[in-house]
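Budget justification aside, the reviewers requested a transparent look at the raw inputs and outputs of the sequence design task funded under Objective 1. We therefore reproduce one unedited record. The lines immediately below are the C-alpha cells for a 259-residue chain.
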C-alpha cells in the first residue's frame, strides 16, 4: 500500500487508470475517504491517471491530534503527487477537497493545470464548525452523524440507494474524531474568500441543486463570480455529487478537462 510521510504523518494514496495519461488528483470531503470517487472511477480511468489521496485524518491516512490548516493539507497533496511522479496535474475535489484545491492553485500555480471544484465554498460559518469540532472531540462521531448525513445526501438518494447511503453513514461514524476535528479546524479557519480572485488556472465550479451544505445560490455563485473565467456545471445532486450524479459529473469533468 503506498504511503508518503508528510511532517511525520503517513498519507495514504492510490493510483489507478491509464499509465501514460495525464494525472488527475481526486480529493474527498470531510467525513469520507477516497472511496467517495468509486462510482466515477470507471468513467475516467481510460483517459486519466487517477491519483486518489485519503485526506489527512481520514481513511487510511494518519489522524494526528490537533488542528490542521488548508496549507498543511495542500502540502500533503503536493508531497504525495511528487512521490507518485506527478510534476503537474489537474485536480478535482469535493467540498473540503475543493478548498484544498483552491489553496494549492493559489500557493502552487505552476503545478495545477486545471481545477474542478465540486460542491464547495471559499468560506463557511466558523462558529458552527467550532461547535461541531467541540462535539466530535467531546462525544465522538456518532453525535454529529444524523446532522452530517442530512447535509451529505438527499432524502431521494436515501430512498433510492439505501445500501450506498448506509455505506456513507458507516464511513462517517467510523471516521477518526480527532482527524475529523483537525480538518474541521482547517474549514473553520480558511481564508480563501478574499484570495480566490487570484486563481489563474481554468476552473470548473460544480454545484448541486439539492446541496444543503454549500447551497449553489450562495457558495457556488460566489466562486463563479470571483474566480476569473470560471465555468459552471449544475447537477441534480446533493453535496456528495460523485455518489448522486456520477455519470453527469464524469461527463462534465471530461468535457472541461479536454478543452
Ligand atoms: O456540511 C457538511 O457536513 C459537509 C461538508 C462540509 C465540508 C465538507 O468537506 O463536507
Amino acid at each position: 500500500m503506498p504511503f508518503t510521510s508528510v511532517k511525520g504523518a503517513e498519507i495514504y494514496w492510490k493510483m489507478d487508470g491509464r499509465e501514460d495519461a495525464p494525472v488527475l488528483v481526486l480529493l474527498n470531503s470531510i467525513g469520507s475517504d477516497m472511496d467517495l470517487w468509486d462510482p466515477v472511477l470507471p468513467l475516467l480511468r481510460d483517459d486519466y491517471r487517477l491519483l486518489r489521496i485519503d485526506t489527512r485524518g481520514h481513511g487510511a491516512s494518519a489522524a494526528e491530534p490537533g488542528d490542521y490548516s488548508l496549507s498543511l493539507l495542500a502540502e500533503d497533496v503536493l508531497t504525495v503527487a511528487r512521490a507518485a511522479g506527478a510534476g503537474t496535474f489537474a485536480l478535482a475535489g469535493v467540498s473540503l477537497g475543493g478548498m484544498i484545491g483552491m489553496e494549492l492553485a493559489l500557493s502552487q500555480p505552476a503545478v495545477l493545470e486545471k481545477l474542478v471544484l465540486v460542491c464547495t465554498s471559499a468560506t463557511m460559518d466558523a462558529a458552527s464548525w467550532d461547535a461541531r469540532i467541540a462535539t466530535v472531540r467531546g462525544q465522538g462521531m456518532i453525535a454529529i452523524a444524523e446532522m452530517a448525513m442530512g447535509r451529505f445526501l438527499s432524502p431521494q438518494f436515501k430512498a433510492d440507494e439505501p445500501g450506498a447511503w448506509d455505506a456513507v453513514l458507516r464511513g462517517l461514524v467510523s471516521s477518526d474524531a480527532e482527524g475529523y476535528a483537525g480538518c474541521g479546524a482547517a474549514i473553520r479557519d480558511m481564508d480563501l474568500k478574499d484570495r480566490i480572485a487570484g486563481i489563474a488556472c481554468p476552473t470548473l465550479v460544480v454545484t448541486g441543486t439539492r446541496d444543503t451544505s454549500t447551497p449553489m445560490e450562495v457558495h457556488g455563485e460566489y466562486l463563479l463570480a470571483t474566480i476569473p473565467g470560471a465555468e459552471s456545471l449544475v447537477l441534480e445532486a446533493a453535496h456528495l455529487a460523485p455518489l448522486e450524479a456520477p455519470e453527469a459529473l464524469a461527463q462534465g469533468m471530461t468535457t472541461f478537462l479536454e478543452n
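The beta strands are 3-6, 9-17, 23-27, 49-53, 89-94, 112-118, 203-208, 231-235. The longest strand covers residues 9-17. Computational costs for records of this kind are itemized in the attached budget.
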